[in-house]
């Protein structure tokens, strides 16, 4: 049997998956690591903990491979976007990995948006201006931690650091570079204006390579620990969003991937870079002739967790005693409430928001509460609010790339029948659930197979995944959702003028906020 490994370096864990050449999972490992949030708005990880998790994952899945009667053809990487690590002359970390979820650069991102420079940069980089990006983080570090900033010789992300440790070469793929806010998507190189704004030079950044680029010659001691031939090709791979689209076979024009895990995203593939004149969506590179246009949202399953923990603590305990999933129990409660939650609307901005409003100060709210509303209405409104928000991202996307032809939905929420149906009803589109539980790792493995010439085209991914089920929209819900979505959208706009004020109040008066 021949094998390919996909490694997905995520925000909370590394998933390492061993596939055969038919795309069937033959081994799986999920290695967790902590997110450090020692102060408000901080979200960091330890690069060494992530590196150990990758070594453990590779070691674990390789044990499942029968290498006496088969070959491991390669390993291909996916990684979360927007991470930043400062390295010294000897490539030793001066910082932890500052993740996309870190909001400490919010002041500088706001300045870029207000002074017009942000718009110029977005139109060249395809990366919206937001504290998540290395561009904003570099400005923040340069201004607020100048000594640390001056000490740095290199500015890299987590994937580049891992590859440097394994192979001793410092290089970055176009897809990860694209998400830094420092990369020009029209000339495929670091952008001079962005570098100037960030206060760095191109010789402080890794060499740029394509997502299909291969590296061999792993450091012998790591190869020995893992039990891998050091000449096994490692494929650079891409960032997690574009690879998630590939891994659910949403790479034909018009096929939209909607993912809701802890956070969420709505994405579609085009054959060349496309920019939104209003700056609401990103455009990220996947491979030659494949660009992914979409919008990420902060508030997916994490909102459902808040509802469970804060509003349904007794039910959570009951579920544990009954040995049933607490989310399933809450979904049953929500299902008893009619579509539209009897006019209760929830804005799910518990952690600021990225697409489509790009406002780190955004806050959540219930609107329309009356005495007749119950906790059951609140849980349903929260679930609907998450989908309304994704739908507003879809509306922005439609302006850039046209109407979707179909929707592929994935992520933890896809396990819930109610939520899948809600998606179909609010989007008024058929929703297909592809059968590929680790879509991002499968996307990485597929790109790896393509890079190695094992498949002729990325569309071969359709042979690797099945279809779990299809949900058709229910016309009986149209009236409710068609009436409420415009109210949801208008409210978002009207509240935006006050988000900054309430966020400022919370930062100065509420010490545990964002912890």
TrEMBL record:
<feature type="domain" description="Carbohydrate kinase FGGY N-terminal">
    <location>
        <begin position="3"/>
        <end position="247"/>
    </location>
</feature>
<dbReference type="InterPro" id="IPR018483">
    <property type="entry name" value="Carb_kinase_FGGY_CS"/>
</dbReference>
<protein>
    <submittedName>
        <fullName>Gluconate kinase</fullName>
    </submittedName>
</protein>
<dbReference type="GO" id="GO:0019521">
    <property type="term" value="P:D-gluconate metabolic process"/>
</dbReference>
<dbReference type="InterPro" id="IPR050406">
    <property type="entry name" value="FGGY_Carb_Kinase"/>
</dbReference>
<dbReference type="InterPro" id="IPR018484">
    <property type="entry name" value="FGGY_N"/>
</dbReference>
<dbReference type="InterPro" id="IPR000577">
    <property type="entry name" value="Carb_kinase_FGGY"/>
</dbReference>
<dbReference type="InterPro" id="IPR043129">
    <property type="entry name" value="ATPase_NBD"/>
</dbReference>
<dbReference type="Pfam" id="PF00370">
    <property type="entry name" value="FGGY_N"/>
</dbReference>
<dbReference type="GO" id="GO:0046316">
    <property type="term" value="F:gluconokinase activity"/>
</dbReference>
<keyword id="KW-0808">Transferase</keyword>
<keyword id="KW-0418">Kinase</keyword>
<dbReference type="InterPro" id="IPR006002">
    <property type="entry name" value="Gluconate_kinase"/>
</dbReference>
<comment type="similarity">
    <text>Belongs to the FGGY kinase family.</text>
</comment>
<dbReference type="Pfam" id="PF02782">
    <property type="entry name" value="FGGY_C"/>
</dbReference>
<feature type="domain" description="Carbohydrate kinase FGGY C-terminal">
    <location>
        <begin position="257"/>
        <end position="452"/>
    </location>
</feature>
<dbReference type="InterPro" id="IPR018485">
    <property type="entry name" value="FGGY_C"/>
</dbReference>
């Amino acid at each position: 049997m021949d094998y390919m490994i996909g490694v997905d370096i995520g925000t909370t864990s590394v998933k390492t998956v061993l596939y055969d050449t038919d795309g069937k999972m033959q081994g799986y490992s999920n290695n967790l690591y902590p997110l450090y949030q020692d102060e408000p708005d901080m979200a960091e990880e330890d690069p060494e903990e992530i590196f150990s998790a990758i070594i453990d994952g590779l070691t674990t899945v390789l044990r499942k491979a029968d290498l006496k009667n088969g070959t491991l053809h390669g390993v291909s990487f996916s990684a979360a976007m927007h991470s930043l690590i400062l390295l010294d002359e000897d490539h030793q970390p001066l910082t932890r990995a500052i993740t996309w979820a870190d909001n400490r650069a919010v002041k500088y991102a706001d300045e870029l948006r207000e002074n017009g420079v942000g718009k110029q940069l977005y139109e060249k980089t395809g990366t919206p201006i937001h504290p998540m990006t290395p561009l904003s983080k570099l400005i923040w570090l340069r201004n607020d931690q100048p000594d640390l900033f001056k000490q740095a010789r290199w500015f890299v992300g987590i994937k580049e650091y891992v590859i440097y440790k394994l192979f001793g070469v410092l290089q970055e793929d176009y897809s990860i570079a694209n998400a830094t806010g420092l990369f020009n998507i029209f000339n495929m190189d670091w952008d001079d204006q962005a570098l100037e704004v960030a206060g760095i030079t191109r010789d402080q950044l890794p060499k740029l390579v394509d997502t299909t680029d291969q590296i061999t010659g792993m450091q012998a001691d790591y190869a020995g620990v893992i039990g891998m031939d050091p000449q096994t090709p490692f494929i650079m791979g891409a960032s997690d969003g574009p690879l998630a689209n590939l891994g659910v076979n949403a790479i034909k024009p018009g096929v939209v991937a909607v993912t809701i895990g802890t956070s969420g995203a709505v994405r579609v593939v085009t054959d060349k870079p496309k920019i939104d004149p209003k700056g609401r969506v990103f455009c990220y590179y996947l491979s030659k002739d494949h660009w992914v246009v979409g919008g990420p949202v902060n508030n997916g399953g994490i909102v459902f967790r808040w509802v469970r923990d804060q509003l349904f603590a007794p039910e959570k305990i009951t579920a544990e005693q009954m040995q049933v999933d607490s989310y399933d129990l809450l979904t049953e409660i929500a299902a008893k409430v009619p579509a539209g939650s009897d006019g209760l609307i929830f804005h799910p901005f518990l952690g600021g928001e990225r697409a489509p409003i790009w406002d780190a100060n955004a806050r959540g709210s219930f609107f329309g509460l009356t005495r007749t509303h119950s906790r059951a209405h609140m849980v349903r409104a929260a679930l609907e609010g998450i989908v309304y928000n994704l739908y507003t991202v879809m509306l922005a996307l439609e302006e850039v790339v046209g109407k979707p032809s179909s929707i592929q939905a994935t992520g933890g929420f896809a396990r819930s029948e109610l939520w899948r149906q809600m998606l179909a009803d609010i989007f008024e589109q058929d929703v297909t659930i592809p059968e590929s539980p680790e879509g991002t790792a499968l996307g990485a493995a597929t790109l790896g197979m393509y890079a190695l010439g094992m498949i002729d085209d990325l569309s071969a991914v359709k042979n690797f995944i099945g279809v779990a089920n299809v949900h058709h929209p229910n016309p009986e819900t149209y009236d409710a959702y068609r009436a409420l979505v415009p109210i949801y959208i208008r409210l978002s706009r009207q509240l935006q003028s006050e988000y900054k004020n309430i966020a400022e109040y919370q930062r100065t008066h509420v010490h545990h906020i964002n912890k």
